[in-house]
Every structure is written in structure tokens, then in C-alpha cells.
Amino acid sequence: MLAGMHRLNRLKAETFEQEVYNRTALVSEFAKATQAYISKQTKPAIEAETEALVLEGMSSFFATRSLFEEFNKALPEYMYRAPTLNPLNPTNQADEFETELIRRFQADRNLPDLSGYRQKNGVEQFYIAKPTEVRASCLKCHGNPDNAPKEIVERYGKTQGYLWTVGDILSASVIYVPTADLRAHQTVLHRTIVITFFFLVLALAGTVYGLFEGLINRRIVGIGKALSQQASSPGSSIRIEDTTADEVGMLARQFNRMADALDISYQNLEKTVADRTYELTETVHSLKKTQSQLVQSEKMSSLGRMVGGVAHEINNPANFIYGNLKHTKAYVQSLLDLVRNIFEEVPPEKLSDNLQEEIEEIDIPFLEKDFYKLTDSMEGGVERIRDIVQSLRNFARLDEADIKTADIQEGIESTLLILQNRLMATPERSSITVEKDYGQLPLIECFPGQLNQVFLHVLNNAVDAVEPLTERAPLIGIKTEKTSHGCRICISDNGVGISDKVQASIFDPFFTTKEVGEGTGLGLAISHQIVVETHGGQIMVDSVVDQGTSVTIVLPLIAAKI
């Protein structure tokens, strides 16, 4: 049926083309007959009667055009034209489309004709064009205008249509015929074919369905129901009674054998599942316990190298200085009071010249005023040291259950403060420059201590990546920006970069490229867990070897586990 429909469509297309060519041939033969009549009948008769040039009876093209003007009054869609690039009669001037046809004949003189379809004023037309070569007889009217017949000059003047050359192609005969009625007929025919094919398909489908339903479908449905019951009720004794010798009967027997095997397997499955469930429960419990221990171990390991005894060692002398400043101020105040009392009892002019000069050099009023400024600044410095120590303690505090509204940028600054010693210059490299581009971030509901761990791991890795640099200055960039649902933090470096192979495993637990004893391979794995699982965010790594690495962290406004 498909082949028949395809064949009908081809026949329809061939019929359409044939009808179009038949119409064109009729117009062409009419034009040829008119030109032959002029050449063989009227032209010789007129020449026998007069020497004057009578275009209406002697020019075949003139007569043909005139006859078609009358013909077009009845059938305006059928046209015959002899368009010319340099005509005597302006009505024969080639339009843009016809000019292109003539140019193609000029370019390829072996072209016998050109045909196709065109749209003009919204109407489709089929055209066929044939080239017209300038012959010697043409030069009688189209040669030198000074030698042209006076009838030609009087009618058309001497401005155009002359100086033709034998062998040139300056004109073509073009026939246009309408195709709209043929297209409409084709549409009706196509609709008829489609409808007929549709009903044939329905009839065939009905016949096939009836045969399939009676012989196969009902039995297959029965097997399907049995399979469904077997799947929903494992261990049930479901069997199919079908003893036919065809393929469906064989399928039913195979089902019965499968059901027997499933009954045996199901009897052993429950015990196996119970045993495995217990083992998995114990394993999961052990893994959770081990994971918590590893997280704590990695956190304390990272902090231990940098924080260690810093807080204790700094805090003790800072408290000592802060406590003694109060006594120092009291002692100096007592000495200054004593000096004032001495000056009241012993005027300076009674002192020796040397003492007077020394007193003037010391400038006791200025000393008293500047001394309190110095002690105030010392107190401010000690308080700053105590704040730093407190920041170190806060950073290292375990706060898994401590959900807070936090400023992410403050956490980054605290992390940079802890890493300050790693950023300073070493004998092997210059100091590491940290470029910050902070945006206006909202406060985030999060676990600040855990996020500080993430920043510490990422910044530590960035420092490790830029430390080997010798040909360019080490640089770490930190950029934060607000997103529609939270914030984005990008930490980049211009270090050694990471290969594609390493990037594929970068978040795997225990995966590390560092030497034994230098890393556990848990830093980025824990960071991934904190960002993705705990906070419902994203962490992505983009790196190019020998160019640098960029770690992007995206956090929502509210952590996933809040």
C-alpha cells in the first residue's frame, strides 16, 4: 500500500509536469504558426504590392505580439513575449527576470532552453525560454540607424535598437502559462489518495487486529496477568494452563518453569536478605562513626599545624602586658606627682644650670601628655592581639549543631588571618598577593565553623599550588557576589594547575597528590560534603595545567539541614 501510494504520488507529479508542458507547447505552436504564416503568406504578398515596410504584415515578431495581445484579452494568464536587451519597440524591453534568462543564454550558448516556475504578483507561472540569435537579415532594421528603413526610424527613432551584431544573443522567446488550476486539481487528487489510503489502512488494521486478538492477544494478556500477579505476590503458586504447540504455548510452559524456580529462590531469599540487612546496618553504623572521626581528625590536623599553641603562647604575654600597663600608669603618675611637689617646694631657678637644662630637654608637660597616649595605644594593641587569639579559638571551635546567621566574608577574613604566616615571603619565593573583590552579600543561615574549614582547605591548596612558582609572582584571587538564591565565592590562583585525570578524582576520599605524611586526601572530600550535603550548595573546580585553578562555591541563603 505504501508503494502504491508512492507510485500514485509520482504519477500525479508526472501528470502535472506533462500538463504544464502541453500548455506551453500549445502556445509555442500557435506562435510558430503565426510566424510561419507571416513569413510565407503575408510578407511575400505585401512585398509584391509595395516596397514600403509594413511591420504589421511583414514582421513575424510584431504580428505574433499583436495577436497575443488580442489572445490575452480572453486568456490573460497565457503570455508570449520576445524580450530584448536593446529593442526598437520599448514594449519588448526585457524585465529583470527576462534579462537574467538572456544573460544565462549568453554565458552558455549550448543551452537549448530554460524552464521553471516563478511567482509574479502572487500567482505561480510556468515558463519556458529559448534564445534568439541575431541573423544577418535582422541587421536590415537593427544595424546602422542611418541605413535603417525610414518606416522604422519614423516609428521608433534612432536612440535604441540598433548596432546589433550577427551571432549575438540579445533576445529570447518566452512563454508563460498558469499553474494555479493544476495545483488545485493536484491538491484535490492528493487529498483523495490520502483519504483512500487511510480507509484502506483502517480496514487492514481491523482485519489484522481481529486475527491477532483471537489467536494471540488474549493468550498473551493471560500470560501478562500471570506475570503481574507473580511480581506482586512472590512465592504464590500461579500457573498457566495452555497446552498448545505454538510459540505462545511454549511461552506459557517457560513461565511455569520460571515460576517453579522462583518459588525455590524465594524460600532462600528472605533469610539471605535478613542476613545482608543486618550486615549492611552494622557497616553503615561503622562507616558513619569512622566518617565523623575522620572529619574531626582532618579538621584538627589542619588547624593543629597553624593554630597549635599560638593562642596559648600569645594570650599569656598579652594578658601580662595588659595587666601591667595599669600598674605602669600608676607608677608613672606617682613619679610625676612627686616631681610637681618638688617643684612647688624647690623652684627651678634654685636648681643648678645642668638640672635646669635637663628639665627643659625632658619637657615634663609634654612627656606626661605623650605618655598616656603611648599607654592607650599599647592597650589598644594588646586588645587587638586578644581579639586575634579569640578569632583563632572561634575558628577552631566544633559547632556542628551551631546554626548561625553569618557573614561569609568575615569567615574568609578569619581564614586569611590564620594563613598569614603562609602568605609571607620565603627564601624560595616572594610573598603571595591576595586580591579581594567582595560584593554586597546577604547574611547566610549556615554552620560558620564548617564553612571556615572549607575556606581553609581551599586556600591551603591554593597556597600549595603557587609555592613552586619561580617565573611569575604568586597570586590568589577571592571574589564574592550575590546570586538570586544566595551567594557565590570564587577562589582562584595562578599556580601549577591540575590535570584532567586528577580533576576526575579530586573529591574522592583519601585521594591526594601530596607526599606521604603531607596530606590525608580528605580536605576536598570533606569540603564537598559540607557544601553539598550539609548546606545544599555546589562546589566546582576548573583548572588548566601551568595556568592555575579556580574553585567556585555556591551557597543558598539557608543550609539544607537547617
Class computed from helices, strands and strand pairing: alpha+beta
Compute the gyration radius: what is it? 52 Å
List the secondary-structure elements in sequence, H or E.
Answer: HHHEHEEHHEHHHHHEHHEEHEEHHEE
Number of domains: 3
Give the neighbour order of strands across the main sheet. 6-8-9-11-10
The number of helices is 16
Percent of residues in helices comes to 55-70%
CATH fold group of the largest domain: Beta-Lactamase
Give the second-level CATH assignment, the architecture of the largest domain.
Answer: 2-Layer Sandwich
Structure description:
- It is a single chain.
- With 562 residues, the protein is α+β, with helices and mostly antiparallel strands.
- The chain has three domains: 2-178, Beta-Lactamase (2-Layer Sandwich), CATH 3.30.450; 307-396; 403-562, Heat Shock Protein 90.
- It is 59% helix and 13% strand.
- The chain has 16 helices and eleven strands.
- The protein has helices spanning 2-49, 55-58, 60-74, 96-107, 139-142, 150-156, 180-232, 247-306, 310-345, 353-362, 364-396, 408-418, 420-423, 448-466, 500-503, 523-534; strands at 79-81, 114-120, 123-133, 169-178, 404-406, 433-437, 444-446, 475-482, 486-493, 538-544, 548-556.
- The strands form three sheets. The chain has a five-stranded mixed β-sheet with strand order 6-8-9-11-10. Strands 1-4-3-2 form a four-stranded antiparallel β-sheet, with helices on both faces.
- A hairpin with a 3-residue loop joins β8 (475-482) and β9 (486-493).
- α1 (2-49) crosses α3 (60-74).
- It is flat, with a radius of gyration of 52 Å.
- The two termini are 66 Å apart.
- The mean pLDDT is 80.
